């Protein structure tokens, strides 16, 4: 079995930059991604039929992917990492099945997942995430609906609404839990980032031109449906000091920002800390992405949400650290990447100050959620069942999971964790990262020669 100098997990902007730079430095590199093409969510390539009609989506992503291949990186797409032990990654793909990938150093650039907060009716097929709506509009040129409400909180809502409008849909209302649109100290500080202001204006203009209603300090409380069709969205002030009202729509897009995807890093033993603003875990890294586990690094949204430009810069910085550690030479960081990362993270911090903390927002929404609200869509567990779970301690999430099965479905709590922690009044540290990180067919485990050789025994027993 080949042992690589470097294994990079995640083929988005950060992962591709890290793989490219380490390969160009002369290291043997394997790049693993669960999608069937490199790019991640940001550089997700268009299907051939759409590309013929609309052209390439974010063509710089295709250029970067081509450079990665040309640099001699071994690319394993359609491959899922489901467990890790020291320098070994257990992966699964078609048609190779279950096998092991070994590397002296591992760079985790697995990005982020969208943060979801339940409300009555959020499981309806006409209720979709911001990421789905954005992908459909930007990559495929298709609006998710004809009359759309975009709701939630965070800077991602505006580009989602703008993309839907450009794709031909009408965003009848943009509903934001905070009050970011106005004049205040944080908005004035944004003048230091003129490029971001230009981007903001380009996204806001199509909404103003089409008559989108801007509602601040408010959240979605429920939906009214008729069979498979959405009829209207119920909205009220976050503080509950005003009467709810309804907006007619055929589609609801909801998003509350993003959560760093740290489950692989936690499984490897990397130290993570709680981000008090969002009540989410973030991996503890130095300025060059080194984690607390020797030989393990992290880059991009996995270390904090700051956008694609920051992710690419961090990929280059992590690569510099990997090359230095592998060679024993002094670290030589690319100055442009240092400046870019610093600038993008400064803007991300400013942007965060404009919006309510996701942790406090989750607590407020879950405190007022009716018992019948479905909390865990994988297992069909309701808010009332989690509230009623006699776990001995209100903060005991593990016991509540055992009693209700909330967070124990295929997504392993990646989507219901914020709501589950808000209901139990605790932090995500109490939700363990466990094997398998992603579903693995039992037939593939049984068929693997690694099982008969005994290499998989401990891992399978844990699962």
Automatic annotation (TrEMBL):
Organism expressing this protein natively: Kineosporia succinea
Domain FAD/NAD(P)-binding intervals: 4-307
Protein name: Thioredoxin reductase
Keyword Oxidoreductase in annotation: yes
Record keywords, A-Z: Oxidoreductase
Pfam families on file: Pyr_redox_2
